[in-house]
Amino acid sequence: MVQSRLNVAIVGGGIGGLFAANALKAQGVRVAVYEQAPAIGEIGAGVFLTPNSVRHLQRIGLGPEVEKWGARVGKESRYFRHDGAPIAPVQVTDSSGWNATFGMHRADLVAMLAAHLPAGTVHAGHRCTGFEQDSDIARVSFANGVSVEADIVIAADGIHSELRPYVFASSQPVFSGSVAYRGLVAHERVADWPVDRWQMWLGQGRHFLAFPVRAGQLINYVGFVPTDEEMKESWSAPGDPDVLRAAFAGWDPRIGQLLKEVQLTFRWALYDREPLPVWTRQRLSLLGDAAHPMLPHLGQGANQSIEDGIALATILARADRATAPSALTAYERLRRERVAQVQRGARENGLRYDSAYSDLGVRDAEISAHAAFRRRLYDHDVVPDAQAAAEALA
Fold first, then answer.
1. Burial class (CB in 10 A: 0-12, 13-18, 19+), 331
2. Nearest to residue 72, comparing CAs of 34, 98, 37, 99?
3. Which alpha helices (DSSP H) does the chain contain, by range?
4. pLDDT grade, residue 384 (50/70/90)?
5. Would you tell me how many other CB atoms lie within 10 Å of the CB of residue 355?
6. What sign does the dihedral 128-283-272-301 (CA atoms) show?
7. CA dihedral of 69, 310, 298, 79, whole degrees rounded to 10
8. DSSP of 341-384
9. What span, in angstroms and rounded, lies between the C-alpha atoms of 191 and 55?
10. 181-196 confidence digits (pLDDT tens)
11. CATH architecture of 2-73+100-172+276-354+370-393
12. pLDDT of the residue at 380
């Protein structure tokens, strides 16, 4: 078969890289993943999975795992003003009414994706330090002295990608002016907290989000607050729980109840980048945050990475060594404008969430109307377009 001759190396063992590896394996493509950390894992807290990515997790056989480890959120999901006054329901289904919207612990999702790959697919302890290619092959070098060759290299190594400069000139991430305090509270410590809904409170310059993860055993919270201090983009910088509590003092008492139980929190500086005009150079292409880091205000970072991975695998299933560069160009062409729209939408939604409006009635009306945007977002299935792109290359 043609696809058995294609060999793909993925640099980065996060959600995007591991999902892409699974999708490629499902298409019969040979793939190896190289991760810089000494072991596959994820320090993060919660991630929100929406129908536009869950359908692809189902396609590769992980639907039951999502059901097991996720926490489905439903029609009681709400937006509130900072004092708890309700604003609007949250759109949790696609246009058909299909609810495949889950809170998940990032560690559970990463472990699930890694476990679904054959033994020997993932190579930890490989920090990328260089790249070169010619018309026939691509080569990646690592700090441990290892060098690997592949027909295609996929950079899934995040916002600080080592490989991005080989595709497009380096640019600085754009700091949003906000940091997020994030962490988890055991549900048993807030036994009255509902585990069937996503909830967000909106106030001047800041907002607060909570949703269940790990089948409702944990409550994931994120408190978004403004700051003048630029800090390194990191999932794991320590934060001060008392500073977090002070930032939301006087808000809905439910938030105070939850934050009273916070003993450990992390600060996450929020950055994105301007949409890139180019993702691909010959046999190297970008995926996920390496291509399109976005603010979390649509909950789409992981979801768009999964869309990237299924599109890539669908197109590469019909490629061989000779057609690989044109297949990567087709993948980029299919994905680039879609994710640029989502990047822009996340920025715009952040302004709504932080109440950057003189008239909160206008803000509340936009929040209500935003359900239509989310339905379109969740309806999107990239696979038919990817299949058409693959057929056009044949």
1. buried
2. 99
3. 15-26, 51-59, 63-69, 106-115, 241-247, 253-259, 301-316, 324-353, 360-379, 382-393
4. very high
5. 18
6. negative
7. -40
8. HHHHHHHHHHHHHTT--S-HHHHHHHHHHHHHHHHHHHH--HHH
9. 32
10. 999 999 999 999 999 9
11. 3-Layer(bba) Sandwich (3.50)
12. 96
Q: What is the pTM of this model?
A: 0.95
Query: What's the per-residue H, E or C state across 155-189?
Result: ECCCCCCCCHHHCCCCCCCEEEEEEEEEEEEEHHH
Residue with tokens 């292409």: 285
CA torsion 108-113-116-118 (nearest 10°) is -130
Contact 92, 375 (CB under 8 A): no
* Per-residue CA distances from 6 to 2, 10, 221, 387 (Å): 7, 13, 42, 18
Q: Is 37 in contact with 129 (CB distance < 8 Å)?
A: no
Domain ranges for the chain:
2-73+100-172+276-354+370-393
3-state secondary structure of 2: helix
Maximum C-alpha span of the chain: 64
Q: Quote the tokens at residue 33.
A: 């993943």
Take residue 12 and report the two structure tokens written for it: 């980065």
β partners of residue 141: 130, 147
Report d(CA 384, CA 394) in Å as an integer.
16
pLDDT at 88 over 60: yes
Give the tens place of pLDDT for each residue, 212-270.
999 999 999 999 999 876 655 555 678 999 999 999 999 999 999 999 999 999 998 89
Residues 6+ apart with CB under 8 A from 155: 11, 12, 161, 162, 163, 164, 167, 284, 285, 286, 287, 290, 291
Token reading at 36: 């810089």
Give me 376's structure tokens: 């379109």
Report which of 91, 28, 19, 14 is spatially closest to residue 53, judged by C-alpha positions: 19
Q: Kindly indicate the confidence band of residue 43, based on its pLDDT and cuts at 50, 70 and 90.
A: low
